[in-house]
Amino acid sequence: MFSNLKLSKLYFRYILHSREFSTSKWKSVVGLEVHAQIQAKTKLFSASPTDFTNPVNRNVSLFDAAIPGTLPVLNKRCVEAAVLTALALNCRINPISMFDRKHYFYADLPAGYQITQQRSPIANNGFIDFQVYDTDSHKRSYSLRSCIKQIQLEQDSGKSLHDETHSLVDLNRAGIPLMELVFEPDLCNGEEAASLIKELVNIFRCLQTCSCKMEEGALRVDANVSVHKDGEELGVRTEVKNIGSIRAVAGAINYEIQRQMALLQDGQKIVNETRSWNSINKITVSMRDKEEKQDYRYMPEPNLPPLYIAMGPTTWGCVNADNIRKLIPELPHETRKRLKEECNLTTEQAVILVNELKLLEVFSDVILKKKLNTNLVANLLINVLLFFVNKEKMILEEIVIDPIFFGETAEMLQNEMISHKTAQFLIGEMLKLTPKTAKEIVISCNLLQINDEDAIRKRCEEVIEENPKMLQQYLKGKQKVFKAFLGVIASHSDKVNMKKATALLKEILDKYKNK
Amino acid sequence: MVLQKMFGVLKMMIFILREGSSGGCAIAVSTGACFAAIGSDTGGSTRNPASYCGLVGLKPTYGLASRLGLIPLVNSMDVPGILTRYVDDCVAVLNVIAGHDPRDSTTLAKPYKKIILPPANKLSIKGLKVGIPVEYYSTHLSEEVWCAWQEVAELLEDHGAEIKEISMPNTEYSIVCYSILNQCEVASNLARYDGIEFGFRANVNLSTEKLYATSRSLGFNDIVRNRILTGNYFLLNKNYETYFNQALKVRRLILNDFDKAWEEVQVLLTPTTLTTAPKYNDFKNKTNRDQCAFQDYCTQPANMAGKS
C-alpha cells in the first residue's frame, strides 16, 4: 500500500517529467460497468415500494429481509424496462435467461447472496454511439462507439451506515431492481467515459427506465482502468467503484490513469485491487487491503424458473420483445439529427437541448405554437436562460419555465420589439416567477426597443463626440475600438436596437475616415 | 429425528426411531393428536416416517403445491408432504394445498383438477400397469420389507393389475448426486444465518469477518458445518463444472429413467425404506451420510426427478 503522501509525490514527479517522456508511449484502457436502478414502483422480487423518500427500513417485505421460507416473484415491469433499454442499446435479447445467486457476506446483504444473472443474462452484444467533447483540445469533438457485453437484471443491496462505534443497516434499498450494463474496455480516458455516461443518461431518461438521479444512487459507475505501453500486453487493472457523478467519472479515471503511469514509470507494479473515488481530495483510495480474489460461488437460483421472452414466431413468454420494440421513442441521437436537419440547429445547440430535456420541451412547445426562428429560440434557451441558471447557481430540474412567457419573449425579440438585453431581463423575471406576462412588463417598464434610425444615429454621434480619444485610436486603425463604441452605446440604454446601431455606427465612422 | 418410546414395549426400554425430519408430524398423526400434518419432503422426510408409523405419506409432484413458508433445505427438491391415516384424508388435504400459487414461481401454472375418489366398492385396478424397478432390490433390503413388497405385488396382480419388471439404471447414483446438490443448496440457504440478522451471534468485536467466522463455527454443529464447507467447495468457480454441473447432468439421467418408465407403466411399486424402523442403538453408530444412504435409497430418486 502506498500512503497518500507518497502518492502525491509520485503524481507530482509525473507532472514535472511529463514533457520528458511522451505520454503517447502509454496507452490507457478503460471499461465501464454501470448499475442503473430501474424506474419501477416496486422491487425486483417483492411488492415493497421503491420510494426513496420513505423513512429508513420502511420499504422492507419479509422477502427483502431474507426471512426463511419467503420466495422471489419477478416484477414484470422490470423485465419490460430491461428489454426496452436493451433494444434501445442495440442488444440481442435472449429468449431464455436465468437467475443466479452470487454469494458474499455483508451486513446489508441479509440473505448472504444477491440474485443476479451471471451465466445467461437477459441481453448481450449491444453498443452505444456518442459524441466525445475533449475540453483540452479546443472543443474538438469526435464520435465513438462502445460495445456492450451484457445487460443483466439484479437486486440492489441494502445500505450500511457507519459511525465510530456502530454500524446500522437500512434495507430500503435491498431488492431495488437494477440493470447492470457491462461495457467492453474500448475507451481511453475519463472524458470518453463521462461522455458515454452522459449519453446513457439521455437514453435512460428518454426511455424512462432509470431516473438517473446520481445523488440518490440511482446510477452508479464502476470503471476498470489499466495502462500499458504501445505494442505491449494490457497492464494490470484496478477497479474504481461506485462513482457517483458524471464529473467524478472523468476525474476518477484520469487520476487513476496518471497514478498508474507514475507508478510504472517509477518501476513499481500495479496491484489488482478495488479503489474508491474521494471526491473531496480528488484521489482514488484502495478499498480493501486483501489482495485475494473473491469467489462468489455462483449457483442457479432454484426458486425462479428460466425467464422466457417472446419474440418473432415465439409468442410465449413473460413479455413480448417485438411489442416492446414498438414502444421505443425517438432516441437522443435521432432527436439531435432532427434538430439539426429540420430545425437547422448547430451540433452544439442540438447536443445541449438533448442533454437538458427541460429545455428541449420548451423548445418543441414554442416552435410548435409560434412561427419563430429556431436558431433564435435555441440561442435564447442556451445563451440566455441556461446561462442565467448557471450564473445564479440554480438547478435546471427545479426551475419553472413558463412556455407562454418564454414564447412571447422570443417573439418580441424576433420582431425587434425588444433588444437582446431586454430579453435577458425578461427571462430573469420569468425565473423569478413574475405574475405578469412578458408584454405587460415591456409596456409597464417602457422597454420597447428603440428602432428609430434617427434616434439611434443621434445616439451614435453623441457617443463619438464624447470620446474623442477613442475616435483617434479608431482612425489610426484600431479595429477593437469599434466594439468599445458599441459597448458605450449599449451601456447607455438596454433598449437600443444594436443591429441597427452597429450598421449606423459603421456608416458614421466611415464618414470620419473619409474626411 | 424423533425418538419415540413405543407404548407397547415401554417396559423393555427399547427406543424405536420414527426417523425423518417430519417424524414429529408422523407421531402427531399416528397418535391421533391431529387429523393430518404437513411435513417437508426433500429426500423422503415425509414418506419415511409415514412408513415407519403405518401412515399414508404423500410427496406431491414438485410444483403441484406451493412452497411458500416452507423453510428450505434443497429448494429444487423440497415439497410440502402430507401425512394422514387414510388415503381419503390425504386426498382431501391435497385438494386444498395443490394448485398454482402466484407467490411461488415454481408452481405449475396449469389449473389443478381436484381428485375425486370413487367409492371403495367401485374402485378397480384391473389392467393397471405396475412397474417394479429391479434396481430397488438393494443388498441392504431387509427380508421383512422384501416379503411385504412381494406380498403387495401379488395382491395387486390378484386383483387384475399387470405387474412388470422395469429398469431404472441410474437409481444407484441418486444418493451421491443428491449429496452434492444438497450440500450446495444448504451452503447457500444457510448463508443468511450469519449472526447479523439471523442465527447465533458470537461476542466478537474485532471485525465483521471475525464475527461471521466465530458465530458460524460456534452456531452450527459438525454435520451442518461439514455440509456448508463441502457445498461451498463444490460451488467454487474451479469446481463448479466438475461437481455441481456434473450432478445436474446425473439428475437429468435419473429424470430420464422415470420418463422412460412412464412409457411402459402407470405406477411404480417400491419399498419406502429398506428396513422397518431401526432401533436407536443401531442407528446412532452410523455416520450421517450412511444414515441418509440407508434411509432414502428408495424415496430419494423421486425428489431428484421432481416426481410424486
TrEMBL record, chain A:
Domain Asn/Gln amidotransferase: 361-509
Gene3D superfamilies reported for this sequence: 1.10.10.410, GatB domain, N-terminal subdomain
One cellular component term from this protein's GO annotations in UniProt: glutamyl-tRNA(Gln) amidotransferase complex
EC number annotated for this UniProt entry: 6.3.5.-
Recorded catalytic activity of this chain's protein: L-glutamyl-tRNA(Gln) + L-glutamine + ATP + H2O = L-glutaminyl-tRNA(Gln) + L-glutamate + ADP + phosphate + H(+); L-aspartyl-tRNA(Asn) + L-glutamine + ATP + H2O = L-asparaginyl-tRNA(Asn) + L-glutamate + ADP + phosphate + 2 H(+)
Family note: Belongs to the GatB/GatE family. GatB subfamily.
Complex and partners: Heterotrimer of A, B and C subunits. Subunit of the heterotrimeric GatCAB amidotransferase (AdT) complex, composed of A, B and C subunits.
Protein's job: Allows the formation of correctly charged Asn-tRNA(Asn) or Gln-tRNA(Gln) through the transamidation of misacylated Asp-tRNA(Asn) or Glu-tRNA(Gln) in organisms which lack either or both of asparaginyl-tRNA or glutaminyl-tRNA synthetases. The reaction takes place in the presence of glutamine and ATP through an activated phospho-Asp-tRNA(Asn) or phospho-Glu-tRNA(Gln).
Protein name as it appears in the record: Glutamyl-tRNA(Gln) amidotransferase subunit B, mitochondrial
Originating organism: Pyrocoelia pectoralis
TrEMBL record, chain B:
GO molecular function list: glutaminyl-tRNA synthase (glutamine-hydrolyzing) activity
Protein species of origin: Pyrocoelia pectoralis
Entry-linked InterPro entries: Amidase (IPR000120), Amidase_dom (IPR023631), AS_sf (IPR036928)
PROSITE patterns: PROKAR_LIPOPROTEIN
Transmembrane region(s): none
Record's keyword annotation contains Hydrolase: no
Residues in the signal sequence: 1-23
Pfam families per the UniProt record, alphabetical: Amidase
Keyword Signal among UniProt keywords: yes
Keywords per UniProt: Signal
Domain Amidase: 20-307
Gene Ontology CC terms, in alphabetical order: glutamyl-tRNA(Gln) amidotransferase complex; mitochondrion
UniProt name for this protein: Amidase domain-containing protein
GO biological process per UniProt: glutaminyl-tRNAGln biosynthesis via transamidation; mitochondrial translation
